[in-house]
Design a protein that fits this description.
Elements: H1 2-16, H2 20-33, H3 36-45, H4 52-59
Length: 72
């Protein structure tokens, strides 16, 4: 009986697991959160709107460390 239940569960997972294509955004999010600086920026910006200058001050960084695409 245990083998039949396990096989049923495996088949259920095969049929209902989220497709890889739908997980790509989630993978990107986890990659972003995997970088300490990005995570600190996200946490700071979750509190309020901040300029690049304010972020560099809060994080103790210099402006050149921010990608130019962020400075808009």
């Amino acid at each position: 009986m245990e083998d039949a239940q396990h096989l049923e569960l495996v088949n259920h997972l095969k049929d209902h697991l989220v497709p890889t294509a739908e997980l790509e955004d989630l993978v990107s999010l986890f990659k972003s959160l995997g970088d300490l600086t990005r995570l600190r920026i996200i946490l700071a910006l979750a509190q309020t709107t901040l300029s690049v200058s304010e972020l560099t001050d809060i994080l103790g960084m210099s402006n050149p460390r921010f990608p130019i695409s962020w400075v808009c």
